[in-house]
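Checklist before submission:
- one chain only
- standard amino acids only
- sequence pasted in full

Submission:
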Amino acid sequence: MKILIASHIDPETVEVLKRHHDVITAFGAEVEELTQLVPGREVMIFRSGVSIAPQVLENGADLKLLIRAGSGLDNIDVDVVRDLGLRMVRIPRPSAQAVAEFALGMILDVSRNISLADRLLREGRWPKPELAGTLIADKTLGIVGAGNIGSRLGEMAANLGMRVIGCVNPRHEPPVETLHALGIEYVGFQDLLRQSDIVSLHTPLTDLTRGMIGAAELQMMPAGSILVTTARGGVVDEAALLDALESGHIAGAALDVHEQEGEGVLSPLAAHPNTVLTPHIAAMAVESQHQIGTRILEFVEAFERNELDSVVVPIEHVA
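Returned file contents:
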């Protein structure tokens, strides 16, 4: 089969695909380059960080299958996929544990000033008294989007002695009974903000979630609270967050996703000492990427045999 790989995926998977198929790699290519490369390709594999614009899909007359090596769909127009009659599958599950663990790490980092302490020590400073953090035990963690990732984070946090509350999109997330079984109490969005010492975001970027954490929502959070996001850039209004940090109302924030991402882009939050910023790496655990690679191979092989439906579970159906 003729395959275009538009994003970095597990290297072993790339090698296996190259041995058995006609493969072009264009990791992180811009729209114009993808538009030129897609003609003649039957399968395209991509992650976040690359724009699969409508013109790319429309120029792929031979495209039949799109494989999203992860879960988010904010970088592709699903309506265009449907209109063109393409099959698209995604692979959300392997990344869930990696992202949940990363979010927990960020919570601990900001709560105990770990990254800040590291930066100051490298500058030759030893400000021990000023770096006293706070415990997370007995604190309230609010999870916005307690789905596949958020519910795993909630379960881990509950085991560490936190009270965990969550809100969900009832169309796509687990039922309330499932959350309760994991130790997560269901509340409404505004109640979650008002009650949480730490808020962790796990929502896709949609018209409904874009800018959902702005100035008004940040003011609902208790003074001295912490915001963590491994969701998607654009869910948080970063200018409003910076104002809340500078006023001291928000004590700290950790962001793995940003309104503007990519090489050479500097976050407006970078100069604030009480922030932890990472380059969209929450899912980048070796084990999870290998699992995603294995799933990609299964999809390609099944599609080649015209047996894709036998290896695709309902959550992975998009079009």
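Reviewer check: Residues 302 and 310 are 8 Å apart (CA to CA).
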